[in-house]
Amino acid sequence: DTGVSQNPRHKITKRGQNVTFRCDPISEHNRLYWYRQTLGQGPEFLTYFQNEAQLEKSRLLSDRFSAERPKGSFSTLEIQRTEQGDSAMYLCASSGAGTVSGNTIYFGEGSWLTVV
Amino acid sequence: SQQGEEDPQALSIQEGENATMNCSYKTSINNLQWYRQNSGRGLVHLILIRSNEREKHSGRLRVTLDTSKKSSSLLITASRAADTASYFCATTAAGNKLTFGGGTRVLVKP
Question: How many C-alpha atoms does A85 have within 13 Å on its Cβ side?
Fold first, then answer.
């Protein structure tokens, strides 16, 4: 068990460019989550997968954002036409198939995005 | 929108003292989880307490949950400089996603 893995850890991009982040969840975890966190704030929910199905999307996830989990294992989060307001840390998390009440959710180290 | 609010927003204590922080939330929950975050790093899971539990311990951590008041507290006993971090509570309600508060920034001075 190597934990939730995210890459790249840091990305600096010019406004208008596309960026993609990858998340590898803990093996055998069927639930995968994406969050966004800005400085001094708590993480905000973006989207959630159970296996390959994207079950919930936040209103924060504009049309420029797309997330996939094609084979129910790793996931990608793509941001198209980046804006300076997209600068944040993007966190991925995963959890197992247990009951919701007892389900610990584990986070990765996050991917920092800076849009210049 | 964020579900909960942590109180205080910031806390400064001396090494060896206890640190207590509180979390309030708005809706019914399935569980509440506490996380620690060092500056610029990801979130480290500390403890999960189910809605039908009132208290849990893990090492130097003690968490209480009062569902009638929609509040939880995290106590860190005998704090160490390494406990310096931000601490977040997060709740799980219907569905599986966590909803976070704004966090408590704890500074433990050696």
Answer: 5
